[in-house]
Amino acid sequence: MLDEGDLVYLLDPKGNRYWLNLRREMVRVQGLGVVDANKIIGQEDGSRIKIAGRDFIAFRATIAELMESLDRGPQIITPKDAATIVFRLGLRAGDTVVEAGVGSGALTLALINAVMPAGKVVTMEIREEFADRARRNIERAGLDKYWELRIGDIKTAELGLVADAVALDMPDPQLALDNVERFLRPGGRFAAYVPNTNQVADVVHGLQDHGFLEIGAVENIQRNIEAHPGGVRPAFENLAHTGYMIFARRPARS
Ligand code: SAH
Fold it and tell me: Are both 126 and 21 inside the same structural domain?
């Protein structure tokens, strides 16, 4: 059942999505006008809803759909890369994850989704203006209860916590490794996301110098496939490149 507090979208026959947070009142929906959310609360996920004579399907949003819908400034981490980061970090409910920086909060959403409700994500962001946009995005998703945003530099900030995993999306993650060693627990997992190969080399060498193990770098190539009446082929407008991911684990000091 779709419930109060859920973030849902209304899908029209052309594939357009209209987003709203379900509250027991009239809600202003961008692109649609004012909608009575009471008509949607209590309906089954995926129900047909009629609004002002038009037909929509109401779906509760998945994290990937949410990430695609974000109000974005800097380049976001796409669902395909976020899925790899969450899985390779081995995230489970209850984990504490440290992230830097926040950007638009796309990766943050995927991290929170993996560790909630018992765990939390602590995000360090150096620029206040990005922090504000990301905060709006995470609040809109209703996920801010599992999230702590701190303004500061991940290279030097004293975090005062023990993390199970760390995810860095910033230009020079290798310069944060001295600090990562202070808060990442023994056995903890490390991920970095960078767009250029020279950065991959910098991060891998930094991890080696800091004694990290199980170091590996990957790129995810994903192509959308279109099925037309005359044939099936990759989409012409596929994204050629997003970023490289570097993973590692921290051993205990003996
Ligand atoms: N992963 C984000 C995008 C991050 S963009 C997303 O999916 O939306 C990179 C961010 O890192 C920017 O917001 C930038 O301000 C921040 N940043 C760069 N250096 C940093 C540092 N030393 N400490 C904390 N944040 C940093």
Answer: no
User: For 236, how many CA atoms within 13 A lie in the half-sphere containing its CB?
Assistant: 1
Q: Output the CA 123–ligand 1 centroid distance in Å.
A: 9
pLDDT of residue 72: 73
Rounded-to-integer distance, Cα 160 and Cα 222, Å? 38
Beta strands in the chain (DSSP E): 7-11, 17-21, 26-29, 33-36, 47-51, 54-60, 96-100, 120-125, 147-151, 163-168, 184-194, 213-219, 225-228, 231-234, 244-249
Residues 35 and 52 occupy one common structural domain: yes
List, for the chain, all residue ranges whose pLDDT scores fall below the cut of 70: none
For residue 239, the SS3 value is: coil
Closest CA to 206 of 245, 238, 177: 177
Question: Which residue's CA is the closest to the ligand 1 atom numbered 18?
Answer: 170
Residues 127 and 243 placed together within one structural domain of the fold: yes
| Centre of ligand 1 from the C-alpha of residue 192, in Å | 11
pTM of the model: 0.95
Whose Cα sits closest to atom 12 in ligand 1?
A: 103
